[in-house]
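User: I'm writing a tutorial on reading structure tokens. Could you give me a worked example: one chain, its sequence, then its tokens, then a sentence or two explaining what the tokens reveal?
Assistant: Sure. Here is the example chain.
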Amino acid sequence: MTASYRAAVPADRAFIVSGWSSSYRLSRDISFIQMADYAKHMHAIVESVLARPRCEVIVAHGEVLRGFIAFERPDFVHYVYVAQPYRRNGHARGLFEAADIDPLSRFAFAARTKTSWELRGKVPAAQFDPFRARFAQKETT
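And here are its predicted structure tokens:
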């Protein structure tokens, strides 16, 4: 399945927030968010990450949006998501490439899911660093 990669636009926001929130829902790393309030809290958290001055988002698209990567240059990945029907077609690899991040190189990432655990061998030098995600770096000029 061929996809193109581009910077996210405002019309992509609902897909990004929903995909991030729904795919992260069962992560074993979120301790205190109660499921009854999960969407309310998680959507606000995702929106706050997307609002960070250095956060960039690239989407994979074809006839529909297929996935996205939220990241900060040069080497920090907040989240990567590919919708279920489009997985195992190289879209995650394409998103990393579009973000200028080599998945085989050393980079930090903020979130783990069951899928990311299963694909750990695809990013052997990546380092889980959730603490870094908690503090926005100031814009550098």
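What the tokens reveal: The mean pLDDT is 91. The chain has one domain: 4-133.
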